[in-house]
Specification:
Blueprint (H helix, E strand, L loop, with lengths): L1 E5 L4 H12 L3 E6 L7 H8 L8 E5 L5 H11 L3 E4 L8 H4 L1 H21 L4 E7 L23 H20 L3 E6 L2 E2 L8 H11 L2 E4 L6 E2 L2 E2 H12 L21 E6 L5 E2 H12 L4 E4 L15 H7 L7 H16 L5
Parallel strand pairs: 1-2, 1-4, 2-3, 4-5, 5-6, 6-11, 7-10, 8-13
Antiparallel strand pairs: 9-12
Length: 336
């Protein structure tokens, strides 16, 4: 099939596009290559995709209404995996308009492109951040998500509402995936695995927020990609009762799934895994909780497993080891 993968130079986007290409699909990868973090890393990720003859890269912002509309018209994609977004909970406090443009306007242009060009299935990235201040764990797709604690989370919840509207009004099949703390090789420099590994190897202190009393449902990138690839084959129907549906009698072809490891890890345990992989001890600077953060994330994945017979299950020791090994090679210039 012919896929559009937005955010193709991003962490999850690159891995997803490569898996689709390995499976024999044609992929158009779209990314604006912004400078939120090192653009060199984004170019290095793209170099993993350019050897494939079935891959073509388009540099474009998802908020470019005319450009996106023309791209959809020319390419006639069968399926779309929309992973492009302005990422980062804390950065949304500093630069909120970047999230409005990328996450809201960008989602609208993708929905319009899918609607007008009869795309079979739109799979898009939501986030565990939508659960916000929810106290009940594990987080279930049936939980109310009305208390976001960051603008990033609010935009992701908005994406789900927008998708439901298009599914209901235009019968566009959409599936939202609530990712839980994705990590692994080619991960982002602003996330804990990279920040901790870099600081530990340099003998610099690491910032441990909430005095280390944090739990995250760390989910390895290979498990995330496996979930994305499997779920895009399960196209929602109006009469499908699995997952999260419209409360109306005329159920929309719309689904939401958690993708997480279903096993929260203490932050201190995650740090110990990095110490073991690097062979160095961390210098810890204990700090209070940061605005927009939550103390725990924990995915209920029963619905996902019922649909695709798959549960993420990579152990933290393997995942962290793989990341540290990749990081050391990348910093050494092995991927130039």
């Amino acid at each position: 099939m012919k896929f559009l993968v937005t955010g193709a130079a991003g962490f999850i986007g690159m891995h997803t596009a490569r898996r689709l290409l390995d499976d024999g699909h044609e992929v158009v990868g779209l990314d604006n290559l912004n400078d939120y973090y090192d653009v060199g890393l984004k170019h290095a990720r793209l170099k993993q995709l350019t050897p494939y003859s079935a891959f073509r890269f388009v540099k474009m912002d998802v908020a470019d209404r005319d450009g996106i509309a023309q791209l959809f018209k020319e390419e006639q994609f069968q399926r779309v995996i929309h992973l492009a977004a302005q990422a980062g909970v804390r950065y949304s406090i500093e630069n909120p308009m970047a999230y409005i443009d990328s996450n809201l306007v960008g989602m609208a242009t993708i929905l319009e492109g899918c609607r007008h060009n009869k795309v079979e299935h739109l799979v898009y990235a939501s986030s565990s951040s939508v659960y916000g201040a929810n106290a009940k764990t594990p987080f279930s797709e049936s939980d109310r998500v009305d208390n976001p604690v960051s603008l990033y989370a609010a935009t992701k919840k908005s994406n789900e509402l927008m998708a439901h509207t298009y599914s209901h009004l235009y019968s566009l099949p959409t599936t939202g995936l609530r990712f839980f703390t994705v990590y692994g090789p080619w991960g982002r420099p602003d996330m804990a695995p990279w920040l901790f590994t870099e600081a530990i190897l340099k003998g610099q202190p690491i910032k441990v927020f909430n005095n280390g009393k944090m739990q995250r449902d760390f989910t390895y990138i290979d498990d995330i990609v496996q979930g994305v690839i499997r779920i895009q084959n399960f196209v929602p129907r109006r009469d499908d009762k699995m997952g999260i549906d419209s409360p109306s009698e005329n159920i929309a072809p719309y689904k939401i799934y958690n993708i997480g490891n279903n096993e929260p890890i203490e932050l201190m345990e995650f740090i110990r895994a990095i110490e073991e992989s690097t062979g160095e001890k961390a210098i810890k600077e204990y700090l209070p909780m940061q605005p927009g953060d939550v103390p725990v994330t924990y995915a209920d994945i029963v619905v996902l497993d019922n649909v695709i017979s798959f549960k993420p299950n990579s152990r933290i020791e393997k995942g962290v080891g793989d990341f540290v090994s990749w990081y050391m090679k990348y910093i050494a210039g092995s991927y130039d």
